[in-house]
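Good morning,

Attaching, inline, the backbone tokens for the sequence recovery test we're adding to the shared suite. The designed sequence is right after.
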């Protein structure tokens, strides 16, 4: 079975893109038409393709973690009520208001009805929405005959992930707003306001103080070359973005982030919470330890932390306990290592990991609050010093001229 990317229009006139698995292009085309779509383009899937148009399309069709959590919780409830999978999906499709989610439900229902696939197999065509953790838990639930319970646990997992992410983003919105506003104020002052004082300074007929001359020189440069400065800044951002896509550069940067005085502890606690929550959910759902570690590795965002999983996997596969393997990496906190060891010794590793996720989520929230409380006054003071320095450099010639008059 090959994978084909498509762009199509639904019966309601909504443009959607996605992928289908089929033996050839003609079969994929018939499959899309059978779903009621009007295909515009269909071609074999290309790996690692990227473009602004594709990125914009993905953003428009993205299903958020919160939306996925609601969908999962509702699906679990309908299945527990005794509805079949196809009937439950059809119900969710009728009540959904998100076109992208409606299209995904439609494709999953079609796959289940026509191909006789399992739900996990049908979700493999939509990896951007149903990640590795989700599909693995669904597969384990189908094999174990407890899919509704697994989906209910998955909904709780997604809900907690969305809440923690929202709290972190919400906490840093105000400092980011301060930084952007302060930077814009300084740029406007230097580019458009300070140059208007040059004629006034020339009328004094005296040598200007060194800070004022430096300010006028920098202001004059920015007033003329600000488009070039903006282009260079945008280019630097683009180069940095491309560099971060390289695994080695990203891993070194993530290692530096973990060593920062205040933010390093926050980043580490966030990763520990994510690892404990994901690994615990997978083990509780019936996924084997090695498979759970591989899936969890893909969810880790800090590459320095993710780099420890190769050695942990190798050691666990060789018979070493996970707690001992974590301790050997010298990155995981003693609390996590000790509780993992306790869970392995007592046969309650999923429960210990769930306890760890709660502990580190609380600590991460406190660390985020502490970092924000420290960052806000630092930004305010820094911006105040910069603006005060500009004002002082402007006022120095005026004070000097008044002293000479007196």
């Amino acid at each position: 079975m090959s994978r084909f990317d498509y762009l199509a229009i639904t019966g309601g006139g909504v443009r959607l893109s996605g992928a289908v698995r089929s033996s050839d292009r003609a079969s994929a085309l018939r499959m899309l038409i059978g779903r009621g779509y009007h295909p515009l383009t269909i071609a074999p899937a290309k790996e690692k393709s990227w473009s602004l148009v594709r990125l914009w399309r993905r953003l428009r069709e993205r299903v958020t973690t919160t939306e996925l959590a609601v969908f999962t919780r509702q699906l679990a409830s309908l299945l527990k009520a005794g509805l079949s999978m196809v009937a439950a999906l059809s119900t969710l499709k009728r009540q959904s208001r998100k076109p992208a989610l409606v299209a995904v439900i439609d494709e999953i229902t079609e796959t289940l009805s026509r191909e006789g696939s399992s739900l996990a197999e049908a979700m493999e065509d939509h990896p951007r929405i149903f990640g590795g953790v989700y599909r693995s838990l669904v597969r384990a639930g189908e094999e174990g005959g407890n899919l509704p319970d697994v989906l209910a646990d998955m909904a709780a997992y997604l809900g907690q992930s969305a809440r923690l992410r929202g709290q972190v983003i919400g906490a840093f919105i105000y400092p980011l707003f301060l930084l952007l506003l302060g930077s814009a104020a300084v740029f406007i002052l230097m580019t458009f306001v300070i140059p208007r004082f040059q004629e006034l300074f020339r009328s004094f007929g005296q040598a200007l103080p060194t800070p004022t001359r430096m300010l006028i020189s920098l202001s004059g440069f920015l007033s003329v070359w600000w488009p070039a400065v903006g282009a260079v800044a945008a280019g630097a951002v683009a180069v940095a973005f491309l560099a971060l896509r390289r695994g080695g550069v990203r891993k070194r940067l993530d290692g530096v982030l973990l060593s920062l005085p205040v933010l390093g502890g926050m980043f580490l606690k966030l990763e520990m919470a994510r690892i404990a929550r994901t690994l615990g959910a997978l083990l509780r759902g019936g996924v084997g330890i090695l498979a759970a570690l591989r899936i969890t590795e893909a969810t880790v965002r800090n590459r320095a932390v993710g780099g420890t999983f190769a050695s942990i996997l190798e050691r666990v596969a060789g018979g070493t306990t996970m707690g001992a393997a974590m301790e050997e990496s010298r990155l995981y906190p003693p609390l996590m290592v000790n509780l993992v060891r306790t869970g392995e010794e007592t046969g309650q590793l999923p429960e210990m990991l769930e306890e760890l996720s709660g502990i580190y989520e609380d600590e991460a929230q406190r660390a985020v609050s502490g970092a924000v409380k420290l960052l806000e006054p630092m930004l305010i003071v820094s911006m105040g010093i910069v603006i005060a320095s500009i004002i002082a450099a402007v006022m120095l010639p005026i004070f000097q001229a008044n002293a000479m008059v007196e």
